[in-house]
Structure formats: structure tokens, C-alpha cells
Design a protein that fits this description.
2 strands, two-stranded antiparallel ribbon, 3 helices
Length: 96
């Protein structure tokens, strides 16, 4: 793919950016280098590899979802809350 001023102008429009005239040549060169680098990937022979979506064999390991109530944590949180009643937070009324 060839990056030129016409394509750069189109990219400007699509991205809602404005590129200064003094920087256009530099950006064209940088974009061309990036595209050439990515096009090198087309040279790789990946026919013998199966497409994968994860590197973990056998899928994602799951842990058991066990709920636990830690009374000491709850007491500590309630202890530092500005206002509480019966283990609940008391907050200012915001809806009339």
C-alpha cells in the first residue's frame, strides 16, 4: 500500500485531525514504514498452524465461586463509616 498526500488527506478527514503542512512529509514517511513493516507479516507461512484464540491449553481454568462472609471486614468498614444503623450505611436523601 502506498501512502501519499491524497491518502493522508483522507485519513485526516476520517480521524477529524488536522496535520500541519510542515509535518505532512514526516508523517507520510512514518506511515509508509509502519505499513511496510506490517506487510512483512504476509510473507510468513502460517498454513501449518491452527488458528488459536488463547495460549492456555484446555481452556481457561475456573475457580470455585464460593461466597464467604468475613465479619471482621464488615465490622471494620462499618467502624469507619460516617453514619451507620443496624449494619447499614446512612446517606443523605438525594431524591425527594
Amino acid at each position: 500500500m502506498n501512502i501519499d498526500n491524497k491518502l493522508l488527506s483522507k485519513l485526516e478527514t476520517l480521524s477529524s485531525l488536522q496535520i500541519e503542512e510542515s509535518k505532512r512529509e514526516s508523517i507520510v514517511n512514518q506511515l509508509s514504514e509502519i505499513v511496510n513493516f506490517v506487510e512483512n507479516l504476509n510473507e510468513l507461512d502460517l498454513g501449518s498452524y491452527e488458528a488459536t484464540f488463547t495460549t492456555v491449553e484446555g481452556g481457561t481454568p475456573f475457580r470455585e465461586d464460593i461466597s464467604k462472609s468475613d465479619e471482621s471486614t464488615i465490622k471494620t468498614i462499618i467502624k469507619y463509616a460516617p453514619k451507620t444503623q443496624d449494619g447499614f450505611f446512612i446517606v443523605p436523601k438525594i431524591i425527594e
